[in-house]
Amino acid sequence: MSGIRMKEQIFDTIRHLDENRIVSDEELKELLTTQNEKAIDELLKRARNKALKQFGNKIFIRGLIEISNYCWNDCFYCGIRHGNEKVERYRLTREEILSCCEQGYQLGFRTFVMQSGEDSYWRGKRMEELVSTIRRKYPDCAITLSLGEMTKEMYQRLYDAGANRYLLRHETAEKSHYEKLHPKELSFEQRRQCLLNLREIGFQVGSGFMVGSPYQKLDYLIRDLRFLWELQPHMIGIGPFLSHKDTPFADKENGSLERTVRLIAILRLMFPKSLIPATTALGTIASDGRERGILAGANVVMPNLSPQKDRKKYMLYDNKIATGEEAAEGLERLKERIKAIGYEIITARGDFVS
User: Fold this and answer.
1) How many CA atoms lie less than 13 Å away from 294 in the CB half-sphere?
2) Is 67 in a helix, a strand, or coil?
3) What is the pLDDT of residues 182-223, one digit of tens each?
């Protein structure tokens, strides 16, 4: 095939993805590897237009509350892994969490995202009662949890208590790769089953993966996209792998901003209605990372509502931004930056609409 025809073909692939939401594995690989700048621009433009058509220029905000950095897992990439003895551990009290919610509500947040390591303290009845209290106090708000793997029974209890959404990245859809990122105590099959359980219960489910994690191959990224296609999540969170100095992956190369942004665009065309955040990792790897994510089709940002004294302790990777515009008190500056690229932050819950 001539070079001219090959250049034309990639534009056909982009158009087909835009119109039909799915293309072949080989075509996905081509989209991820092409150096054709005009094709890349076309991909990003179509993804941006797809998001604008679905959501307008509205960007939803979620108030992130990092409730604990205790974790019993030892994932090789994570700065708060159990084996990292240099972490200054903390655990928010019930009163502190409710205070974060009150502050966020006054600022206009209508979704609270409670995230932690896999901490036995914030499990079971204690978490169930916290969710129930937040649901009673803020009946107009969405409650999102990101607390890791649990039994189906516990997920059901949290759902019954009033939680709406659950975020659990699958991390990688390739079993051999999963086993290189996690200790043997963690199960590739269990992670996938948790996501299926959450969907069956009725949660709005979020999944996703790291871009450029150690040992990741191009074929694994294609499997990630195929797994998400099977799962059909309501939310998809991806970000570049960023290393942490006190983990086994301290010397590994960070993921690519460009590839992450390109994947956001592909995901937007595959999942036009999904909620896709411009993540903190994007804002960490580049000062304009979140803006670039939004211009590729992302439609969510998650300012931090956690107490200032604890934000730098939830250090999943080195140099994680923890104060400034990503934090609640920088909300007005964040709004200004989003406005500068033609978008508007809104306080609506931003539920997934089927």
Assistant:
1) 27
2) strand
3) 999 999 999 999 999 999 999 999 999 999 999 999 999 999
Give the HSE-up count for residue 64: Cα atoms under 13 Å, Cβ half-sphere: 26
Extended strands (E) in the chain:
58-61, 63-68, 111-116, 142-146, 165-167, 204-211, 235-240, 300-301, 344-346
Please count the residues of the chain: 354
Spatial neighbors of 250 by CB under 8 A, at least 6 apart, are: 243, 244
The residue behind tokens 């793997």 is: 149
> What pLDDT digit, counting tens, does each position of 226-246 carry?
999 999 999 999 999 999 999
The label of the residue with tokens 């956690």 reads 306
Threshold 0.85, pTM exceeds? yes
Alpha carbon separation from 177 to 74, 214, 255 (Å, rounded): 16, 9, 16
Q: Mean pLDDT across the chain, nearest whole number? A: 94
Label the pairing between strands 111-116 and 63-68: parallel
In tens, the pLDDT along 208-219 reads 999 999 999 999
Residue 200, Ramachandran bin (φ over 0: left; ψ between -120 and 50: alpha; else beta): alpha
